Amino acid sequence: MDSQYSKIVQIVQKAREEKAPIQRLADRYANWFTPLTIAMCGFGWLLTHNIQTILSILVVATPCPLIFATPVAIISGINKAAKKNIIVKNGSAIEQLGKTDVIVFDKTGTVTYGTPVVENIIPIDINKNNKTINKEEDSKILDDLLFKSASLEQMSSHPAAQSLTKTGKEKFNHLLFPTNFQEKAGLGVEGYLNGDHIKIGSYNFIKSYENENNTNEECNKYLVETMKNKQEQGKMGSFININNKNVGIIVFSDKIREGVLDMMHLLKKQNIKQTIMLTGDSTYNAKSIANQVKFDNYKFDLLPEDKASEINRLKKTYKNIVMVGDGINDAPALTSGTTGIAMGAKGTAISAEAADVVILIDDITKVSEIIHISKRTIKIAKESIVIGLGFSLLLMIISSFGFIAPSIGALLQEVLDISVILNALRAR
Asked: Are 109 and 326 in contact (CB under 8 A)?
C-alpha cells in the first residue's frame, strides 16, 4: 500500500502538470505593434514619397519597451523581494501575485505558530466510569498517560506530537519506542507499547477503531463534551485510546501569530476579494481562530487531498488563487493554487519545493508585503510598456511627416530605450 507521503507527492506532481503557464504582459502588446509600424510606414510614404521617411519611422519604432520593460521590472521586483527575505522562484509567480483574487491560508504553522503547547491531560477512570479521581491517583494516571502518549508520538512529525514528546522527555529520563507504529495524516497515530495498543487522534479516528463491545459510553460522552468545550475556547485536543477504551484527552494551546490581524487589514486594502482558512482541525477550533482573525470563510476537518480539492473548487469562481502553507500536508494545495507561498523558516522541504514563493523568516506579514511588491512591479512594467510605446508612436507620427532624420531618430530611440529601462528599475 502506498504511504500517505507517496500519495502527497503524486498529487503535487499532477497539480504541477496541470498548471498552465501565464501569458506574458508583453505578448498582448506585441500582437499589434508590428502591423501598426507597417501602417505608419505606408502613411509616411503617402505623405512624403521619401524613402528616408520610411527609414526614420522604422528607426524610431523601437520594440525595446516590449523586450526590456517587463523582464527588467520583474527581475527588479524579485530582487526587492529577496532583500525582504522572500524568494520568488520565477517571473510568472510575481505576475500572478499582483492579480490575486483570493488568498487561502493553512491554519497550524501558518496563521498560528504551529508549536502547540501541552496545556494539560484530562483523564477518566475507565474502571469505575467515574469522572472524578483523587489527587494521588490523578498524579499516577497523568504520569502514565503522558509517558505512553509521548512515547508513541515521538515517531510523528506533527507539531503537536513534537510538543507532546518534548513534554514527556522533560518529565521522564527516557521514553520507549513503539512497535507497529502507523500514522494517518491529519487524523492520528497508533502503535504498541509493552503490549498495549495505543491510539491518539481525533474522535473519528479513534471511533473507527473502537471495539464493538466497548461499553464505556458514559466516559466517551464526558470526553466528547470536554473536548467540545476546549475547542470552543480555541484549544486543540487529541483523544487517548488504550486497548480500545478512551481514557482521556490531551489539550493543546496554540497562539495566533503576531501581526496576523494587521496583515488581514492590509490584504483588504489591496483589494483581495476573499480570505479563507483551511484546517484539519475540528469545527470548534477552526471557528474560534477564524473569528479572531476575521477570515471571510473557513473549512475544517480537511485531509491533504481535501485542501487541494477545495483550491480546485475555488478556481471555478476565481481566476487567481494564492495558497499559503508550511507543512507536508499543504504541498498538494500549494501546487493546486495559481501561486503557492510556503513558510520556509520552519516549514518542510516538500512544501518549499512545491511552492512558487518561499518566505525565509518566520513572519506571516510577509504575505501582504509580497502582494504589495508584486502589484507595484506589474504596475511599473505596464507603465514602462505604455510610456515606451506611446512615445514610440508619437515619434513615428512626427517622422511620417518627414520632420525627423534617420540619424536623429536613432538617437531618440536610444534615449527612449534607456528611459524605459530606468523606469522599470524603479521596481527595485
From this structure: yes
Split at pLDDT 50, 70, 90, the class of 60 is: confident
Q: Which three cell numbers stand for residue 37?
A: 509600424
Cα gap 401→36, rounded to integer Å:
16
Taking the C-alpha atoms of residue 322 and residue 97, their distance in angstroms, rounded to an integer, is 7
- One-letter identity of residue 97: L
Q: Would you tell me which CATH number, out of the four given (3.40.30.10, 3.40.1110.10, 3.30.1340.30, 2.30.30.40), belongs to the domain 117-253?
A: 3.40.1110.10
Burial 78-105 (b: 16+ CB within 10 A, else e): bebbeeebbbbeebbbbbbbbebbbbbb
Name the nearest CA neighbour of 107 among 361, 284, 314: 284
Residue with the larger pLDDT of the pair 266 and 14: 266
Between CA 348 and CA 11 the distance in angstroms is 16
Tell me which H or E stretch contains 167.
helix 159-171
Q: Give, in order, the Cα–Cα distances in Å from 203 to each of 20, 22, 197, 206, 258.
A: 40, 43, 16, 5, 31
Q: What is the pLDDT of residue 128?
A: 47
Between 329 and 278, the higher pLDDT residue = 278
Q: What is d(CA 299, CA 102) in angstroms, rounded to the nearest whole number?
A: 15
- Three cell numbers, residue 212: 464493538
- Give the pLDDT band (50/70/90) at residue 299: very high
Give the residue carrying C-alpha cell 469522572: 131
Q: Does domain 4-28+86-113+257-373 have CATH number 3.40.50.1000?
A: yes
